[in-house]
Write a structure and sequence with these properties.
- InterPro entries: Pvc16_N.
- The protein is α+β, with helices and mostly antiparallel strands.
- The protein contains five helices and ten strands; from the N terminus they run H-E-H-E-E-E-E-H-H-E-H-E-E-E-E.
- The chain has one domain: STM4215-like.
- The chain is about 25% helix and about 25% strand.
- The longest helix is centred in the N-terminal third of the chain and has 17 residues.
- The termini are far apart.
Length: about 230
């Protein structure tokens, strides 16, 4: 799911004109060593915090059907996670960096969710809305200053972006559908311990098939006559 969110963000930023202008979108950690190796205009989308939104955790199970409509698996509800990104712009001059960052900001605040056309894999299969919050207040994640300190770099202008995305639950296969009627096998043992071949009994041997494809009701045998003790059989 995380890589699918990454690709959706990349596609959204490329559509804003970054790709046409030769600006590269990367997901590397903007460390001091990375910044020293950079030699082209770049927008860095760094994922630095992942946590579950427990308020949206559901229960129960849904059904998964094959193209013929048969039940093939059961799947629990998806679990929602908040992915927090730190977006920075890198160029030779601060003015160029601010221009890039402004272009990114205008692109992201124009939408409240990742467009469906950019979703792939499990995100597309679930068909759920993937919310997008750009530079919002109250992001439940480490502060930008703490992130820069951990990366060993200098504090610079950045955008905080939070994506709420569903993680599909594991589908558990069910038993295959029943396609045949009941088959009964019976056998008797001889006195010497040997067995006799099994006899296969099917519904069609005891009546005509009913409207559901199975045989009709089998006639009930008459009750045997029981002998009285100490008397004569009538």
């Amino acid at each position: 799911m995380i890589h699918e969110v990454d690709e959706a963000l990349r596609g959204l930023l490329d559509e804003s004109g970054l790709a046409a202008s030769g600006v590269e979108v990367v997901f590397d950690a903007p460390t001091r060593d990375w910044a020293a190796r950079r030699n082209a205009p770049t927008v860095c989308v760094f994922l630095y915090d992942i946590r579950e939104d427990v308020s949206r955790r559901g229960s129960g199970a849904g059904e998964v059907h094959d193209p013929d409509g048969h039940l093939v698996a059961r799947r629990g509800p998806p679990r929602w996670f908040e992915l927090t990104y730190l977006i920075t712009a890198w160029a030779n001059r601060p003015q160029d960096e601010h221009r890039l960052l402004s272009q990114v900001l205008a692109c992201l605040v124009a939408v409240d969710a990742l467009p469906d056309r950019l979703l792939s894999g499990t995100l597309a299969a679930l068909g759920l809305t993937v919310d997008l919050d750009t530079a919002g207040a109250g992001l439940a994640a480490p502060a930008a200053a703490d992130v820069w300190s951990a990366l060993g770099g200098e504090l610079r202008a950045s955008l905080g972006v939070r994506v709420r995305a569903p993680l599909a639950a594991v589908a558990r296969p069910t038993a295959p559908p029943v396609t045949e009627g009941l088959v009964v096998r019976s056998g008797a043992r001889q006195e010497d311990g040997g067995g006799v071949p099994w006899h296969r009994l099917r519904y069609e041997e005891v009546g005509d098939p009913g409207p559901d494809g199975f045989s009709g009701r089998r006639a009930r045998p008459a009750a045997p006559v029981r002998r009285r003790r100490g008397g004569r059989q009538p």
